[in-house]
Amino acid sequence: MRTPLIRSSAALVAAAALTLPAAPALAAPTPSPGAATVTKAGTSFLTATSITAGQPVRVGASTSDYLYWSFPASAGQIHDIAATVTFPKGRTGDSTWTVEVFDGLRRRQACTAGAQTPTAGASATSVALGCTLRRVRSWAEPWSADPLPGTYYVRLSVVELPEPDLGLPVDVDLLVAEVGDGDAPADDGELKAPLVPNTKAGTVLTGDPAAAPADDDGSLLTGWLPDLSSRWVWTAVGGVLAAVAGVVGFALTRRPRRP
User: Coil, helix or strand for 192?
Assistant: First the structure.
């Protein structure tokens, strides 16, 4: 008696899956019309090759190279980095590649989308990498890692591969595209309560406050004798003990006088 119910449930699930709309695919970034192709890359932050959004990059490199590029970013912009590494024939195993983005302070920026560290099989002829950055903010707290306007650095490298594949030539295609522009969204909303609540207000004094009575126990020594826990007391005691130790040591070590 349960078989028809199971079949009907499966049919409903299949029908719902058929009626669900497919999620729209993100459009691949395209180069700007008339942009010159960059054919070189730097090997460090200091030698990074400067590029602009929409300018295609195509360089030849080796699997052991670290490739660096830099591009400017303004407040409100969102950038998408897309890279493709094409392999030669004769690779011996899988390889894992990564694309990283750093800001002007060399702080690594997080990616909101894209295959940042994909792995290419031994039989693959290419691997695609991607990284969509967060919207650049016009201001941020000094302790935060929010993206701020300035120069950003892109680093492409291989993080894992068989040792025989080190040094194999590869072709790298990279494009930094601007997928969002405009003013950064304002920090909307208000605090429902202050972070530091107001304390209860006291009364306003109209005259000079009365002095607190002194705590007198009737002893004449109170007020000028130091406290037993004071460092001056222990310093004096230490000096006396040191003097006694010196006298005793001298008495024990001095030679007796001959008559």
Answer: coil
Distance, CA of 228 to CA of 37 (rounded, Å):
82
Task: Give the C-alpha separation, 256 to 259, whole Å.
Answer: 9
Query: Residue 71 pairs with which residues in a beta bridge?
Result: 152
In one-letter notation, the amino acid at residue 4 is: P
One DSSP character per residue, 108-172 reads BPPEEES-SS-EE-TT-SEEEEEEEEPPPPS---TTS----SEEEEEEEEEEE--GGGTT-EEEE
Q: How many CB atoms lie within 10 A of CB 107?
A: 13
pLDDT in tens, 194-246: 545 555 666 777 777 677 666 555 555 555 566 666 777 888 889 999 999 99
As a whole number of Å, the end-to-end CA separation of the chain is 129
* Residue whose entry in the numeric block shows the structure tokens 């000028």: 224
State pTM to two decimals: 0.61
Two structure tokens written together for 31:
């180069």
107 SS3 class:
coil
